[in-house]
Amino acid sequence: MKKILLLVFLPCTLLAQVGIGTANPTADLHVAGNTSTIRIESLNAVNSPLYNDGIKPSPAYVDALGNITIRPSGANASGPGGLTSPINFLTSDSNFIPDGPTNRGVIINNNTTETSKTGSIIVVPFSSPQTALIEVKYSITAMLSSTDLGVSSTSFNDISTRTLKFYFCIDLNNDGLDASELSRKYGLNAQFYSSHSQGILGYCFTNGHGNSTVPQGNHSLHFFVEVIDGLGKFTSVGIGGKSDTLKIRIYN
Q1: How many domains does the chain have?
Q2: CB within 8 A of 152, min separation 6: which ones?
Q3: What is the pTM of this model?
Q4: Which one of 72, 124, 126, 209 is most buried, by most CB atoms within 10 A?
């Protein structure tokens, strides 16, 4: 009697984890090492010049199929597009206001005959490569004195309050602020200074933030301060003199 051996081959799937730089991978693909990198040449500046200019980093996205791409959702063959825009720093300056010869910066005096004085601090030019949203963040230092800071510095002892209002205007096309541009105050923030019979001298910091859409071309930011005090009071303000920070980011 003959015996027939029947072998049945069933399909099977081998599940394995692949490790690079490790013998014990903990994921389907595990690249170990604190300096490890992954390179996808189809996404480099040569193969994807529309979305990778070879200068600034390109954001990566995951599409509906789980593929990694640098092409934003909604982009077309003619160029970049979609919902997410890259960010560029146009300006990043940790001391954008001149300190001046005495480290008191730009000095603005509010005389005894006026209760409000607005003074220009500095003009910062910038260029936008296309119509885009800009974001401006600033930190400004100020010193207050009861005598002209251009001559001497003296603490207050009149038991009174001073107010500093900082803001900037955007000069489109960098051709001088017109009435409309001057009326739009961005990043408005205030600082209040209350003096007593034993006042001291020192720097205060004011932070502000604002954004707007600008067209392609050359523009500038005009920074101002408004000094407010009481009747018959004299207030001298030195703007700058410490680390005054300005960052301009553009979303294009």
Answers
A1: 2
A2: 145
A3: 0.67
A4: 124
